[in-house]
Amino acid sequence: MLLGATVIWGFAFVVMKDAVDVLPPAQLIGVRFLLTGLLMAALFHRKLRGSLNRGFLGAGAVLGLVTFLAFWVQTVGLADTTPGKNAFLTATYCVIVPFMLWALTGRRPRVANVGAAVLCVAGIGLVSVAAGSFSIGFGDLMTLLCAVFFAAQIIAIARFSQRYDVLGLTVYQFLFGGAMGLVLGIATEPFPGWGAVMNADFLCNLAYLVVFASGVCYVLQNVGLAHVPEAQGSLLLSLESVFGVLASVLFYGEVVTGRMAAGFALIFAAILISE
């Protein structure tokens, strides 16, 4: 289930790159998540019975907030970088998970985790830092920030799914996240106009994001994470970066230089070593 989700998500990086050129990031995430939440509520309404209590709604709100922040910051970064770089830099959350667990639970990272972090930083330098300088692009910086939120999301899903029905959690996760996106988007972003959003290409991209990259993938991810340890789950989900680069080369025309390929290899090696 987790592997299937990574294939769909990998190709979603190119779809998101096109979609965010039409609708600003917060509005795009808000519409995407709210439509997904309503679709899933209709499909899994029986799972919502008995879920209208403080604990269940609180868990859904926390998941919605973390998920919205992760995707919003990622989409802001995607507008200023390539889909392939966005995919691999996002995948660094796998290396972050053990250190975040250390902060939250006191479980110390292993020596392998520390070594993986060093490799990961080196890979990030090759991918994001311009040759001959120490500057990093805004898009790449935002993508690295989103990796922190994705790491928090992995841990939160694994924890909450032990106490609450995972499909019900997923519905609330999208409804709360969508509402947050729309509120922020309406307050801070200009609306491009109905002519832009009713375009056939944009609607096809939105349908892919709502039905497959959000609805199908999050059911696969959240059910999968309920049966797989956090570290193993994040390793499987990291394959999203590989499919993201593949999709970017095939459909976006991204050129992977030798320096970038070396950076991608170091980041992926760091993920494998960490897990």
Quick take:
This protein is an all-alpha fold. The chain has helices at residues 2-19, 25-43, 54-78, 83-90, 93-105, 111-128, 138-160, 166-188, 194-197, 200-225, 230-237, 240-252, 258-274.
How would you summarize the topology of this molecule?
Layout: H1 2-19, H2 25-43, H3 54-78, H4 83-90, H5 93-105, H6 111-128, H7 138-160, H8 166-188, H9 194-197, H10 200-225, H11 230-237, H12 240-252, H13 258-274
Helix pairs in contact: 1-4, 1-10, 1-12, 2-3, 2-8, 2-10, 3-7, 3-8, 4-7, 4-12, 5-6, 5-7, 5-11, 6-13
What does this 3D model show about the protein?
The protein is mainly alpha-helical and 275 residues long. Helix content is 78%, strand content 0%. It is built from 13 helices and no strands. Helix 2 packs antiparallel against helix 8. The longest helix is centred in the C-terminal third of the chain and has 26 residues. The chain is globular and about 55 Å long. It starts with a helix and ends with a helix. 49% of the residues are buried. The mean pLDDT is 91.
Main β-sheet description: none
Distance from N terminus to C terminus (CA atoms, Å) equals 19 Å
Structural class: mainly alpha
The helix-strand sequence is HHHHHHHHHHHHH
* Structural Rg: 18 Å
Mean of the pLDDT scores?
91
- Gross morphology: globular
Strand runs, count: 0
Top keywords for this entry?
275 residues, single chain, mainly alpha, 0% strand
